[in-house]
Amino acid sequence: MSRRGTTLVELVASCVLLGALLTVCLWLVQASVSERRATQERLVALQEAQNVLEDLYGRPWNDLGPDVAGRAQLSEQAKRVLPDGRVEAQIDGPQEGRKDVAAKRIAVSVRWRPSAARPELSVRLVAWKYAQHPPPTTNN
Q1: φ, ψ for residue 39 (rounded to 5)?
Q2: What is the residue extent of each domain of the chain?
Q3: CA atoms of 74 and 52, how far apart (whole Å)
Q4: What is the tens place of the pLDDT at every residue in 14-48?
C-alpha cells in the first residue's frame, strides 16, 4: 500500500518544530535589540562625559572650581537616549601644603537607569590639569 500526502501526526510535528524555531529566533532578535540599545546608551554616556570633561579642562586654571562643576548638564540628545540620566562633575585640588605641584583633578560621571528593574549604570572619566607656570628667568 502506498501513501500519498502527509498524515496529521507529521503535520502537527512539523508545526511544533517550526514554532520552536520561531520562538528561538524571536528571542535572539529581542536579545540583539536589547544589547544594541544598551551599547548605544553607554556610547552616548561616554560622549557626554567626554564633552563635559573637555569643556571643564579647556577653562582657565583660575575658573576651575566647584561652582563651574555644578553647572554641568546633559545635552538634549543625551536626555532623550539616557532614561533618568544625569551628569555629575567634581573638581578637587590643588592639595594643601604642596607648593611644588599645582594640579586639579576633574572627574565627570554620567549616570542613568535603563529600566526600573535594572540597576543604575554609570561611566566616569578623570583628568588632571596642571597650572601653567612661566619658566624661571636667568640673569646673565
Answers
A1: -65, -40
A2: 8-130
A3: 9
A4: 999 999 999 999 999 999 999 999 999 999 999 99
